[in-house]
Amino acid sequence: MAKSAVNRARHHRPQLFHSRTKLKIGLVGGSFNPAHAGHMHMSLEAYHKLGLDQIWWLVSPQNPLKPSANMASLPDRLAAARDITAATPFIHVIAPEARLPSNFTYETLKYLNETMPLARLVWIMGADNLVQFRQWKRYQDIVDLLPIAVIDRPGYSYQAISAGRHLFTRRFTARQLRRRLVNTRIDRPGWCFIAGQRHHASATDIRKNRDECQPRKDETQRLDI
Which residue ranges form the domains of the chain, and what is each CATH number? Predict the structure, then answer.
């Protein structure tokens, strides 16, 4: 099978998902508008620190907390995310919410939890997202559903740790969570904070820089003369 076909095949997930897998899977959700090195850093940190088997990027058709303006199409965002992960075979890029009735994170995670009853699922998020986690619909139900690994981000360390103290009743070290994921699903979820090298990349900055580099309409007209 050609290399490009292998890469495409790994992103295929049959009708959604009804799997008996016991794999340890980290779930990274977001708009990925666009996917960037920060997403890769977060995924690699969780993959290595927690001893995961796979990382799934769950590309949202439309994040309920973000405006639709300047949002690239779902096919374009999927294609870009699959390009950036082409050399990382344990990362699978999918868009389950495109086939589900809701694009709220809780509903998506509940669906995956029910349809993959033996998988050891971990939600992975950046420290910046934990700071505003209370804005998410049914955030407390997400906390109760599965363990959460929070990856440190520049400027958010102390705020995230403070938010975690109020949101969760159980905190693991990365090593403790890694051990617990080996044998069974975790019935009493909690969270862990993964510190270390931090990555500054953000999709907002990338879009801003890209827009600033685009010539204005009048400049384009002059260049065409």
Answer: 3-224 (3.40.50.620)
